């Protein structure tokens, strides 16, 4: 086995996001755990590193509160 390169990792995440999108859920619907995390984020904050894997709903929700989001 060889370590994954950046392109492989990006492709994997893109495939996962596409699969989640294909489920037909509302693109901005948050899961209960995501809503719980968001409750702990201040209404206005600085820089946020969002290390999830999904269709971007949490990232979009965080972006409404943060100065910058790196996802």
What would you note in describing this structure?
- By secondary structure, the chain is α+β, with helices and mostly antiparallel strands.
- The protein has helices at 6-22, 32-39, 57-63, and strands spanning 45-49, 66-70.
- It has a two-stranded parallel ribbon.
- Strand 1 (45-49), helix 3 (57-63) and strand 2 form a beta-alpha-beta unit.
- It is globular.
- The model has no long low-confidence stretch (mean pLDDT 84).
Class by alpha and beta content: alpha+beta
Helices and strands, in order, run as HHEHE
Tell me what portion of residues adopts beta-strand conformation.
5-15%
* Quaternary structure: single chain
C-alpha-based Rg, rounded: 14 Å
Global shape: globular
Helix content: 40-55%
Strand order of the largest sheet: 1-2
Mean pLDDT across the residues is 84
Count of individual helical segments: 3
Termini gap: 27 Å
Q: Residue ranges: pLDDT <50 for 5 or more in a row?
A: none
Tally the beta strands: 2
Set down the secondary structure blueprint:
Elements: H1 6-22, H2 32-39, E1 45-49, H3 57-63, E2 66-70
Parallel strand pairs: 1-2
Descriptors:
71 residues, 45% helix, 14% strand, alpha+beta
What's this model, at a glance?
With 71 residues, the protein is of the alpha+beta class.
């Amino acid at each position: 086995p060889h370590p994954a390169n950046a392109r492989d990792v990006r492709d994997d995440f893109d495939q996962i996001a596409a699969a989640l999108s294909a489920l037909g859920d509302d693109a901005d619907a948050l899961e209960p755990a995501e809503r719980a995390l968001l409750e702990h984020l201040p209404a206005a904050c600085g820089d946020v590193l969002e290390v999830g894997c999904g269709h971007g709903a949490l990232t979009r929700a965080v972006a409404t509160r943060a100065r910058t989001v790196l996802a």
